[in-house]
Specification:
five-stranded parallel β-sheet, 3 domains, Homeodomain-like_sf, Arc Repressor Mutant, subunit A, Sigma_54_int, nucleotide-binding
């Protein structure tokens, strides 16, 4: 299964689920398209719950599975090294296929075998789904780490770069860190730096790991560079220089 059960709080996800529900009752082949982490494999498994799931890049395994199955889920079909041979095998073995792809694409060999094609929009276009997913991932985090389901979403900006995959990782990390103790945080930094250190300018190279979060937190809390400079005991020009030096990490602040 994918990183989460398919959420249907938004109009777009509801329509996608309706299409999947219809396909569950039919015997046609279908192609589900969309970015990483939008729920393609979840819907494919909903349509064919007992089917084997094989990535198209594992071509030899895929051909063997096609010879011994009545239905199959093929993920990332656009990565197949030989689409013609794949399609021929599907037709020869009379297999029902639900396939997924990371992007919309057309190919002469697959146009005829997929009676239904539909897209799942990215989470950035499904705001209603994001809030539900945050709650769901928080619940999973509470079970995993043995805490409450309270999650401080103050200043939480959802990472949707990989849709549900990146969002889940972000929630898990933030949940774990919200009650972290100083010594635990320092131990994490120590382990991180142990693997990185080795040059003659490590102090300067890794100073941003301290300065960037301090500046970001301060700007978020005090709302102005002037106030932050005062709280940090820095000259305003010094703070401006630090912000400029770390602009790669402070864009939008």
């Amino acid at each position: 299964m994918d990183v989460t059960s398919f959420i249907t709080a938004s109009e777009a996800s509801t329509e996608a689920f309706k299409t999947a529900t219809l396909l569950k009752t039919l015997t046609v082949n279908a192609l589900i398209m969309g970015e990483v982490g939008v729920g393609k494999k979840t819907l494919a498994s909903f349509i064919l719950p007992d089917a084997s799931i094989v990535d198209a890049s594992n071509f030899d395994e895929l051909l063997v599975t096609l010879e011994s199955s009545r239905e199959i889920i093929i993920t990332n079909i656009e990565t197949s090294p030989n689409l013609k041979r794949l399609v021929d095998s599907i037709n020869e073995n009379n297999i029902r296929v639900i396939a997924t792809s990371k992007q919309s694409f057309t190919n002469e060999f697959i146009e005829d075998i997929f009676s239904v094609k539909f897209d799942i929009p990215p989470l950035k276009e499904r705001a209603e789904d994001v809030s539900i997913l945050v709650k769901q991932f928080t619940k999973e985090a509470s079970k995993l780490f043995g805490g409450s389901e309270d999650f401080n979403i103050t200043n939480f900006k959802a990472d949707l770069s990989n849709n549900a995959k990146s969002l889940k990782r972000q929630v898990m990390v933030n949940y774990l860190l919200q009650d972290i103790k100083d010594n635990e945080l320092m131990e994490i930094m120590q382990n991180y730096l142990f693997e990185k250190m080795g040059s003659n300018s490590d102090y300067r190279n890794y100073l941003y790991l301290y300065e960037v979060p301090l500046i970001k937190a301060g700007l978020s809390k005090f709302k102005s560079q002037l106030q932050l400079a005062d709280k940090l005991g820095l000259n305003r020009n010094t703070l401006r220089k630090k912000i400029s030096d770390n602009k790669e990490y402070l864009q939008g602040e």
